[in-house]
Amino acid sequence: MPHGFVRDMIAADACNFRLQLAACLIGGLLLGVSYLSAMVFDGVELPSLAAFGAALLLGSPLVYSALSDLWNDRTEMNELAALSFVVALGSRQYQAAALIAFFLIASQLIEYRSQFGARKNIEALLRLAPQKAWVVRTNNVEEIEATALVKGDRVQVRPGAQIPGDGIVTEGVSSVNQAAITGESLPVGKKPGDPVFSGTINLTGLLIIQITAAVDDSTLSKIQTLISQAETNRTPVSRLINRYVAWYTPIVLMCAAIVLFFTHDIDRAISMLIVACPCTIILSTPTALVAAMSAAARLGVIIKDLDALEVANRISTLIFDKTGTLTTGVLTVVGISVNGRVSETELLALAAGVEQYSTHPVASALMAEAVNREVPPLNAQQVKEEPGCGIQGIINGRRVAVGRKNWIDQHCSKCIAERSTGQTASGTTRLYVAQEKHLIGTVDLADTLRPDAPAVIRDLKADSSRQVIMLTGDRQSAADRIAEHLACDVEAQVLPDQKMARVEAAHRRGAVVGVVGDGINDGPALAAGDVSIAMGAAGSEVAIHSAGIILMNNRLNRVPFILELSRRVVATIRQNLVFSTTFIIAVFFLSAGGMISPVLAAILHTGSSLFVVFNSARLLRVGEAIS
Question: To bridge 82 with a disulfide, which of 61, 66, 465, 612 should be the other Cys (CB 3.0-4.6 Å)?
Fold first, then answer.
């Protein structure tokens, strides 16, 4: 959705809201003048004139909305509200007509303001969009409009400034506040090679960033589009209400006509029309969804498919991907073994000395371990890497090689005899380190479990009716190593199309299936699930398009939060609908019996709308304790 169109739409809505609010306030003032003048100037025409003016000012929006709906072949609540006003005005009850219109307009403003909250989310995101960018040219730094940035531009971002687009840090070290994108409360450290996102704030150091996506393809732009789409989505409950609204108005009119025919009491008919306006029913679902979306966005959760909020609490089978979902997806050193020729520190310094020139994930793991242990890598020369095998170089005049077992054996004739007798730990990858044809030690690496994964799985398994499964394409030993810490079922060596087949098989058993993945190789399974959740989706176009719920960070505790939010949303919508239906039926019959006056009916009608709005607003507090 073009940002200019969104801004125009928000501006038009805000203007319309302000005009109706002004009319409501001025009309209310005139109505007050009418009642006061009636008390002070007995028998003077001023009360009637003021009441008539208030009635016209307050009732015009109701009549206009009703005529607009009829012209566009829509049947909604406006017809009943307008008809009750016109009948009261036609019977020359000007004060009653104005008071009825005042409370009905107030109800419409409450409804409008609650739905306007979703668009305010878009407006807040639009304000995040950077306006300017400092582009690094050959001889200078030039300020341009952020919208003019193209892929490949290098931009300078000063401390305190917004990052103008998605990109990669090429120079500088800093901390970045990316809460607006990922929901992370603490700043994230950035160094060369790290990704950054449009609209986030550079806090400390000067950064040079290479833009990797056009403005319209940035993560921020995608989130804006998702919220715009979610706002226009209708849930099953909303569609059910719309299905029956076409016959609701004729039945109400028929009942009011029957009462008027037998009682000849116009006030009864007016009261029945007022209380029958289904404001509270119409408000029941959107107010709850807007509050839920706001609560989710606070934690970096984007609800793309609103249907998921009504389905997630019924999930009976929850399928997790392993790599990048339950694990970090990054290799780390889990063990170092030496044979006495060197110490662990010396082995790490030698291995890091040659690996520092490689971009392989194994090299990154070794360098991270060296930094963690504060071991500076030694300088290496004549470094040569053989992809998929290993890397070697000269350090202090002696050749050092790091790589797979077979490759080391080919280059070091003495390594076979000297190979360590220690067994490779289950699910780990072992690197062999040789110096001048002698094996000096080994390094074990593995993908590590996310720290919060065991607690999250335990929380999800607390519901005995829910099955939790981990599917992975990794080998069985790696899956078993992770499964030792998780109380869930495990299947290994499952290809992407086979994951989708597992989801479809669960469907055939009657299960409601939720799928949690990183959105890259899990696309088919995510698309097949009843509820699909993509983790760590910031910057991932595949994740954004394949999942119904998007986690902009890698916090697994958002998954139980989503299930709890879904339960609370469904419960709140049911409460709203039960209250609304009961209220309308009860007051409708009381009005037919002559026990509710038109003015009291309007007051009760407004009060019921306020109840629904405040009941839904309680959802804003869901997840407040989650960090």
Answer: 66
Token pair recorded at residue 255: 């009942």
Residue 48, pLDDT score: 83
Task: Enumerate long-range contacts of 214-218, CB under 8 Å, 24 or more apart.
Answer: 214/149, 214/150, 214/151, 214/165, 215/146, 215/147, 215/149, 215/165, 217/166, 217/541, 218/165, 218/166
Please tell me which residue in 321, 444, 474, 518 is annotated as part of the active site: 321
Cα gap 315→311, rounded to integer Å: 7
What are the sequence ranges of the domains in the chain?
3-125+226-293+566-621, 132-164+166-212, 328-448
- At 188 the pLDDT is 78
**Catalytic residue flag (residue 153):** no
Question: Mean pLDDT throughout 301-311?
Answer: 83
Burial (CB count within 10 angstroms: exposed 0-12, middle 13-18, buried 19+), residue 508: exposed
For all residues of the chain together, what is the average pLDDT?
A: 80
The overall longest dimension of the chain from CA atoms, in Å, is: 118
Lay out the sheet containing 398-403: strands in order across.
327-338, 438-449, 429-435, 398-403, 390-395, 381-386
User: How confident is the model over 517-531, as pLDDT tens digits?
Assistant: 875 567 678 878 889
> Of all residues in the chain, what percent are helix, strand and coil, respectively (each to 5)?
55, 20, 25
pLDDT of residue 601: 87
Alpha helices in 233-318 (DSSP H): 236-263, 266-276, 279-298, 307-311
pTM for this entry: 0.69
Topology (CATH level 3) of domain 328-448:
Calcium-transporting ATPase, cytoplasmic domain N (3.40.1110)
In this prediction, residues 423-439 reach a mean pLDDT of 76
For the domain with range 132-164+166-212, which CATH number is right: 3.90.79.10, 3.40.50.1580, 2.70.150.10, 3.40.50.1820? Answer: 2.70.150.10
% of the chain exceeding 90 in pLDDT: 20
